[in-house]
Amino acid sequence: MNTVKIDGKMIAQTLREEIKEAVQKKTTKKTPGLAVILVGEDPASKIYVRNKRKMCDAVGFYSEQYTLPADSSESEVMHLVEDLNQNPKIDGILVQLPLPKHIESRRVLDTVSPEKDVDGFHYLNVGKLVANRPGFVSCTPKGIIELLDRSNIEIAGKNAVVVGRSDIVGKPIALLLLHRNATVTICHSKTKDLETICRQADILVAAIGRAQFITKNMVKPGATVIDVGINRLPDGRLVGDVDYEPVSKIVGAITPVPGGVGPMTIAMLLSNTLQSAKWAEKNRTKK
Ligand code: NDP
Fold first, then answer.
1. Which value, to the nearest 10 degrees, does the dihedral of the CA atoms of residues 255, 258, 261, 266 take?
2. Which of the residues in the chain have pLDDT under 50?
3. Is the Cβ–Cβ distance between 159 and 219 less than 8 Å?
């Protein structure tokens, strides 16, 4: 089988160039601005935040970073979010997760103005996604749709199976596929006969968080496989939720890990921030 390797790194790069061009052409009067809040010293979070700011710089966005000590109170974090909600330079607010255990993430995320919620985690934006109305959609699922579209993979009428039902990946990608007229099945840890269900998928999305869980016998020959998982093996290798080598031999298209879905997540964060700047201007003109 001539398998297409869906190159997320390249597609994300193209997207970033498009965003940079939009900034240079001043499609918004004001430079789009992103604020990133980091609470504590989690090393992985620090790297994510650094990368997000680097990408902001690369496309010409304005960005601010707030690093709060790990023992900051929930209300301190919420006050900062409220200030940023009012800051006209800022179009998008990103609270880097996970937050320290004594802070209830849900309460902090719900404080972010839905109009600056570029992560798409606020319940109003989740509701808009369910109702298929314009709003912010969380970045990883939005990036998956972009990968499928830019690889000319048809969605309408296809059987799509999503393994995983998290709020940030499984549920929103299932909804996005449904809105694009796929016939969608959502699977989780209590699903019976997962193998049979997965084998019916024309598009299989694995968002489980278990290394190489999806094996060759679970995949229909010729299917498109989207691997969201990021798992570190004991030998240090980074692998997805799909057993890539054997599966890639029988499918029509597949995303690698690393270099598939991952790079799209930050690209979509930039895309959401640009969108936010555009919406903000439109709303201001209306007022
Ligand atoms: P969660 O842990 O929140 O969700 C995992 C889901 O997988 C749950 O719904 C769970 O079912 C399901 N699951 C677990 N075990 C099984 C099983 N044996 N059979 C079927 N379903 C199972 O993970 P996330 O959605 O946050 O992330 C999933 C993966 O994607 C992780 O590896 C994460 O690192 C990665 N990720 C990658 C991103 C990127 O940018 N590339 C962004 C976000 C996540 P149940 O609900 O029943 O417990």
1. -160
2. none
3. no
CATH architecture classification, 27-115? 3-Layer(aba) Sandwich (3.40)
CA of 27 to the centre of ligand 1 (A): 37
C-beta of residue 161 within 8 angstroms of C-beta of residue 198: yes
Domain range summary for the chain, segments of one domain joined by +: 27-115, 139-261
Q: Mutation test of ligand 1: which of 161, 230, 238 has the most ligand atoms closer than 8 Å to its C-beta?
A: 230
Does ligand 1 lie within 6 Å of residue 207's CB atom? Answer: yes
Does residue 119 have an active-site annotation? yes
Q: Is the CB of 187 under 6 A from ligand 1?
A: yes
Phi and psi torsions of 176, nearest 5°: -60, -40
Report yes or no: 139 and 52 within 8 Å, Cβ to Cβ: no
Query: Can you give the pLDDT at residue 282?
Result: 87
Which tens digits make up the pLDDT trace of 206-219? Answer: 999 999 999 999 99
Pairing state between β 224-227 and 253-254: parallel
Rounded to two decimals, what is the model's pTM? 0.96
Please state which CATH class domain 139-261 belongs to.
alpha beta
- What is the predicted pLDDT for the residue at 284? 62
Q: Which residues pair with 232 in a beta bridge?
A: 238
